Structures are given as C-alpha cells and as structure tokens.
Amino acid sequence: MSVEATARPLASVAPRRDAAPRRRLEVVAEPERRRRPRLVYGIVAVLGAFLIGAAQMCLSILTTQTSYEISSLTQQQRQLTWDRQILADDLAGLSSPQYLAANAAALGMVIDESPSFVRLSDGALLGAGQAASWISTIDPYNRGSVANSLVAETPLVTEPDATIVAPPAPETPADLTGGVSNTPPPITEGLPTPSTH
Amino acid sequence: MTTTSTRSPRRRTVVALAVVLAILGAFLVRLVDIQVVNADEHVSDSMDKAFGASQTLYGTRGSIVDETGQTLAGSILLYDCQLDPLLITQIDAQVVAGESTATPWSTISAEVAEITGQSVEDVQKIVGDALAVNPQSRYAVLAKAVKTEQSRALADLGVPYLHCIAHPARTYPDGAVAGNVVGFVGSDGEPLEGLELAQNRCLAATDGSLAYQQGKDGVTIPGTEREVPAVDGGTLQLTINRDLNWYLQQLIAEQVQDMGALSGGILVVETATGKIRAAAEYPTVDPNDFASTAEGDLGSRIFRATFEPGSTFKALTAATVIDAGGQTPTSTVVASGRENFANGARVNDAFNHPAYTYTLAGVLMDSSNAGISRFSEKVDPQTRYDYLTRFGIGQGTSSGAYGEEAGMLHPADSWGDQMIYNTSYGQGLTTTMPELAGAYAALANDGLRMPLSLVESCTAADGTEVTPDLPDPVQVVSPQTATSTREMLENVFIQGALAKTLNVQGYRVGGKTGTGEKTDGAGGYKSGVYYTTMVGMAPIEDPEYVVVVTLDEPTKVRSSAANATAFQKAMTQVLKTYRVMPTDTAPTLLPKFG
Fold it and tell me: CB–CB of B62/B69 below 8 Å?
C-alpha cells in the first residue's frame, strides 16, 4: 500500500511548466581508488610456504633420525634374541625329568611307593601309613634308561663326575692300612645308593 | 567468398589441430593404459625392481605340550655355515704378496675348528676338497645345525668368506620322554614320525616375507617396508603327563632289562574320559637324536604292535556271559585240565587238574582255559563276537596316534570248531594295547567305553581352539555286569599266586594277566616264549585308571608274572600322581569252587 501512496500525489497535481529544462545532476561515483597490493598477504603466503617447507624438512629429518634409532634398536633386539637363544640352548634339557631325577638320586633321594594322606577333618591317616622305604622303586641314577641327547654329556649338578647315562666309576678306597689287605667286599648287586635321608 | 587463398591457411590450421588432437589422444590412451588398465602390473614391477632387499619371515612351528603345559617339542634356530673357498685363496694370495694385513686362512681355520668342534685338518680339508673339484668354487658347507653361540662366535671372527644362515629347527627338551608318540622332524623341517606328522596341519607355520629398500649403510629407508607376516603354527596339547610318562619309561626299561625281554610297554588310560595319560615303552626313540636309533624303535610299539592277548580276554568273555548269558560270578561249570568238547575241539589248561566245579570267579582266578571255554557255551559265538566288537576289539581306537594298528577279529561265522573256544581265552585273534586298555576301561567305567584320545586340543596362533572329533561312547555291558566283573578281577589279584607282589598298600586293585602265544611266522607258535600282559584298574570300587603292562618274550620269567612288579609300581605311581584317595573298604571274597 505504501508504495502506491507515494506514487500517486504527483499525478493528481496539475502539470507545471518549467522555464528551463532542469539539468539532471547526479552523483558520480567516486572513482575507484587504485588498490595498493596487500603486502601482508604476500608475506603471509610466502612465510606459510616456507613454514610448510621447514616443517616438512624437520619431519623428514626426525623420521630419518628415528629410522637410525630403529635400526640401532633392531640391532640391539637382534643381539638380545641371540643372547636369549644362546641361553635357551644352554638350558635345553636341564628341566627334563630324567636330569632332575638323576640329580636327586645322586643325593640319595628315593622314589617311595605308596603315599599316605592325612584327612584334615578328623586327622585320620589314610593309605600305607608307613615310613618311607630305603630303596627307590626305580634307579634313574645308576640305570638311567630314558635318553636325552641334549643333556647326555652334561654333568649332574649334585655329582659332577656323573651324567644321566653314566654313573661315576666306583671310588677305590684309599689304602689306609699301609699295605695290609683290607679290601671291602666286592659289589655284586649294582652300586650302593648313597643313603642321606 | 572462399577463395583458395583464404581456404589454404584454414585447412592447415584444421590439419594441425587434428594432428595435435590425435597425438594428445594417443597420449591419453597410453596414460589410461598405464595408470588404470595395467596399473597393478606396473606397480608390482616397480616394487620388485625398486625393493632391493627381501627376506623370508619364518613362522614358528607350534609346540607340543603335555597335559600340564610342559613343552615336549619346541622350536629353536640352528645355523648352516658355509665358506667361500675362492675368496679364501684370493685373500691368502694378497697376504702372501704383502698387499693385505688380513689374518691368513691357516690361522683362521684353527679358530674356526675350535668353535665348531671339528679338527683343523677337517676344516682345511673342506676348503681343499671344494677347490679340488672346482678351483673357482665359491661354496662349501662348513657345518650344519650349528648352535647360536657357535654361529655368533664365527660371525665375530669377522672374515668375509664365512657366512651362517639361520633356519628353524626342532628341539625336544625332555628327550625320549613320550618321544614314541610325539615323533620327530627331519633336519629339513619335514615331519617324519608320530604326532609331528599326524598333526602337521595343526603345528605347521606359514612363512611370510619382508621386502624393503636399503640405504647404502644398510639402514632401511622409512616407508619402504612391505611385510607379509608369517603365521605361527598352533600349540598341540596332549593328554600325556610327562612326569608320569618318564617314571613309567624308566620303570619299563628296568623291567625289560631285568626280565631279558625284547621290548615292553606301559599304557595308562583315565577311565572316565578315555584320555591316555602315559604311553611308556622301551626301547624307544630320543627325537633329538633319532638318527642313532634302531629302525624298529623309531615308531611306537604300543600303538603298532598287534598280539594274541591270551588270558586277559577271559574277563571280556566273563562279562559277556554275565550280560547276555544270565551268569553270575558264582555260577559254576565242571572242567578238567584237559577238556574235550562235543564238536571235537580240545582245550588244555596250563596245569593239570581233575574235573573241578569252578565258579566263574574261580575260572578267572585259576585262569582256566577249559573253564572259560565251558562258560563261553552259555552264549552263541555271534553274541560273543558282537560283544568283543563293542569292547572295541579289532576296531582300532580314536587315539590319533600316528600309524596306529587295529587288531584282527575274524567274523564269528568263520570261526572253526577249535577257534570258537580259543577266542574265549584270547587266542585266534589279535588286539593292540590301546584296544585292550579301552575294553578294560569300559569295565572300569560301569560298562561305558569312552573313546581313547591322545590329543587334548590344538590352539591356533589366533587363539582358536580345536578339539579332536571323537566317536560317541559305547555302552558295552550294563553297570551291574561291570561291577560283577570288577569284583572277580579284584579276587583274581587277591586270591592269586601274585597277590603279595601286586598289593598296592591302601588301595584295592583288580586285574588279569595274559600270556599270549607268539606266531613263529610259519603257521605255528613259538615254543617257550610269550607275549605277556598284565592289565588292571584301581581303585576297584570306582576305578579311575586302567594300566596295561606288556613284555615281549621275557626270558628270566617267561610267564606274565614277569609283569607283576612293574604293574604294581606303575599303578602305585599313577595313583600317587593323580592323588587318588586310599580306600578304607574291604573286598568281597568270592568262592573259587561251587
């Protein structure tokens, strides 16, 4: 509505003759000022480029540096792997039951027969209920028969003269009698087991 | 308007444009061809050409562990060391000419020999021989299967003509313990025996590869690695208990030596699960050193030997006639030491005796062939055949042991007059130790025969666990029959001649002996030598373990009494290992005669 209201009043007024045609004046737009190139942008752009370049170089140097570090660590890891392998080779077979048993038997330990159990609820003794036998049910020291080539040559910890396959030769007792014959009875039934209960 | 003068330059422009477009088009086509159509090929070409170095990534072969996780077979690295004979001569020539300050081969060879344990002459001979064959030789094997320590010592010599290459190898920390079932792997990494071979699909690793570019100083250029990772093999867990197995191996070795037998074996089965807890035998193989083992000892006799079982089958016949023939342990027959049957067959006992009125229990106690033959008439042969089959005789087992054999049980309709009776006391048919153990485990497990197994599981590198597929359990006889048969088996032990030897203090044990005749390979039986067996179970009131002890041709004691001490010790150790509680109940004594 307001548009029509402003447009109408002129039409209703009688035309008036002007003495002279009015010169039409209009505001000329201010001539565009010549833009000065923004130096700042340029500097920013160039700096940015340099920064990116520098950062990339830094990263690249760091990566290269790291790769040397990795290389030296890899070398170290390899050395440690070798060490581990060497140690594992040294230990191979030492945990085997025949080696353990031969060591224990060399100390005079025996494998006893039936076990006995104490029932905690009433203190009852179940099973054989006897003292341990002095004779081992098997003889892993003098008659070691379960082969293990990994420790076949390894001396026993408890008896350095023996291995799992070969018990030490029986010791000849020192001649204390000064030439008088005092030889002990010959061993006929295998070697005596040291009894160190 | 168009004159020749104006047309000519225009045409030239068009032609030039066309030519330019054509060339551009050609480039475009080629570009697409290179970048899109054949891109993969070119990329892989460039990779192959650009990546100078590549190496095989060896996967580790899976380990074999026992019931408790102890390693029975593991993987290590060994090294093959080689020499460059031509380079040695060249360096020595320079040293002689005074152009080089390197240490001469004569000195180095002594150091090498000291490290590898060879003699200096041998080391120098290796180079000399290689040069004699080919003066330009650049390759001679110094030593194979060198350990890490030696190979590092060799590398530390810093000589350019000596090089060691690592390769995965196998080690068996416990040596011969369960070596018979574990088997072994050849020096080339190929499995040759036992579960190493049978379970290779579980254990084998898949090799991978690593390709990369190297700088001049040997540093890998970042971002150039391409790795196809190796896949390690799975871990194979067995049902075997290695400590028990070791004890039984030492035990059977001593027994074989004491009895002057050819070989012997002990098999332990857990009755409720059918799991084989020990399979010990002597002589056997040390997988670390299988090359020095006799050919016949490389495999497992326990799983491969078939034999005529003899009297141990009387218990199976007894269970059959109780289950299907309405008999009881106190039912009686009349049998003499030399019994003639209606069909013309004749059965002798091991000892001479007049006509006794034997109970079924008494027949087992005296191990009377004639008596059990009389009892076997209570059911027809086909029924006995069916029962034997259900006991697993002649069927093989599901143990999974490599090369396992099955016994031989002829169909009932082919049994002749004599064989009808022979089969009732374990002659005229063959079985194996696992079959026998499985049958007794059924009697021990209230008549339910569990499938035997040797493999617990296979755990792949990614953690997935696979257990072997086993057949369904078989209800062979009723629980009542199994109980009656066990009562008789206990009486066999406590009322027999070996009662004192077989006594396991604190426990009630039952079982049966067997003295099987051996074929001489010419249709007859060997004279005076037997395959002796003792099979038993404990605690008899609710048996948890079945133990079978066999000796092949014992000579010091020729009957199954030869097995008694080993059986008693084996059973004691089994009960001790698994903490089976002693009993405070008393056995029921059954009458021998009716």
Answer: no
